[in-house]
Design goal:
Blueprint lengths: L14 H18 L25 H15 L1 H5 L3 H18 L13 H19 L7 H25 L16 H9 L19 H18 L5 H22 L12 H24 L7 H7 L2 H17 L1 E3 L5 E3 H9 L6 H25 L7
Antiparallel strand pairs: 1-2
Helix pairs in contact: 1-2, 1-10, 1-11, 1-12, 1-14, 2-5, 2-8, 2-10, 4-5, 5-8, 6-8, 6-10, 8-10, 9-10, 12-14
Length: 380
């Protein structure tokens, strides 16, 4: 793909989608890389269990974006085994990042963010193809079938989580260690291969079902954006669908609490609605009104999202692994040393931690900007 001199439609890509993806990725880096985890503003932290913060929107936003992107890439959707190879590559990259640098077989984490993205992508591609009308293009009939699957996945997951019995627990237990998803993960994957060897994992097997529904919500949004309709109508309906999805999520929260770690059905609908509303705003500003003077940094981050994810994860691990010898004889990780030497003395703890994260994002942006200028895009 060739990078243009200014933000525009990139080889069939919506600039607003690249901007939305870039904003999401920038938020991910800031959230994942504070100078000090003990000092962070609450919007940059996940909710401890039930409830949500702005940080809890990042992962579902990215899955939603994956769904939208699928509908805009006709080659990917129709080119034989390419989607399977792409999904498996994403899963493999996630597994390698989880094991880096020692790759310990006894405690190698099996679930993970990229693993979930790969699984959701594969499932969404499969459902997209299976539900597609056989004769010609009929996006409306196709969308109805995908919407039915979205409802089926979220309702089915809810019923399983609140009604299904399993050994040692009562149905409806939604505690971290006692929920059905955690039981399945421990039985199939093993606790030593879960996140931090905890008795539960936020990217577990069962909760992947509603995460697939989140991806399908993005597919539905993509089908609407490519429909032959006026641009203002696209914005209006997408925004209305976003508000409706958030309302469904907030209502469902009364019976099945919004919870990112369990990816509850209320969470899937609430965050899917928020993603649709955010994309509608980006589409209106960037592609309908044409206000693009501010978009370049986010386009740079958005068109190379996988490269940014890998680079951010690897560089943070390396900075934590490299040790700096102190005059006292002790050691600090290079990550902590940089923070304490160049940020901590010059601001309050919360501000210093945030400034470190922003500086880290800036360094990564420079690398991505060089790649963008040289037309280097990491594809899977």
């Amino acid at each position: 793909m060739t990078a243009p001199a200014a933000p525009s439609r990139l080889a069939g890509r919506l600039v607003s989608l690249d901007v939305f993806r870039g904003i999401t990725m920038a938020a991910m880096v800031v959230v994942n890389d504070p100078g000090d985890w003990n000092h962070a503003y609450w919007p940059l932290l996940h909710a401890e269990w039930n409830g949500w913060t702005p940080t809890d929107l990042i992962f579902p936003f990215f899955l939603f974006i994956v769904g939208v992107s699928m509908t805009l890439s006709r080659q990917t959707m129709t080119s034989g085994w390419k989607p399977l190879r792409r999904g498996l590559t994403i899963i493999a990259i996630g597994a390698l990042l989880a094991g880096f640098p020692r790759f310990p077989l006894a405690t190698w984490r099996v679930p993970g963010v990229l693993v979930r993205i790969g699984l959701c992508y594969l499932a969404a591609v499969g459902l997209f193809r299976w539900t597609a009308p056989r004769a010609g293009r009929d996006d409306w009939r196709h969308a109805r079938r995908l919407a039915a699957w979205t409802v089926l996945l979220t309702v089915g997951y809810w019923l399983l989580m609140v009604l299904a019995p399993f050994p040692g627990h009562n149905p409806g237990d939604l505690s971290p260690a006692g929920n059905l998803g955690a039981f399945i993960d421990r039985a199939i994957i093993g606790q030593n291969h879960l996140w931090g060897r905890r008795p539960w994992d936020p990217e577990g097997l069962l909760s992947t079902l509603p995460a697939i529904a989140t991806t399908l919500m993005g597919v539905l949004a993509g089908l609407w954006l490519r429909a032959p309709a006026p641009e203002n109508a696209k914005v209006s309906l997408l925004a209305a669908a976003g508000v409706a999805g958030m309302a469904v999520g907030l209502t469902w929260d009364l019976a099945f609490p919004i919870n990112k770690n369990l990816w509850t059905s209320s969470y899937a609908w609430f965050t899917g609605g928020a993603a649709a509303l955010s994309l509608a705003a980006c589409y209106l500003v960037v592609d309908v009104r044409g206000w693009r003077w501010w978009t370049r940094p986010f386009v740079v981050l958005g068109v190379n999202a996988i490269a940014l994810f890998v680079l951010a994860g690897l560089s943070a691990k390396i900075l934590l692994l490299v040790k700096v010898l102190l005059p006292t004889g002790g050691t600090l990780s290079l990550y902590t040393y940089i923070y304490r030497r160049w940020f901590e003395p010059y601001a309050s703890p919360d501000n210093a931690s945030l400034l470190f994260a922003l500086a880290y994002l800036l360094v990564l942006y420079v690398v991505l900007w060089v790649m963008y200028r040289r037309r280097v895009f990491l594809k899977v």
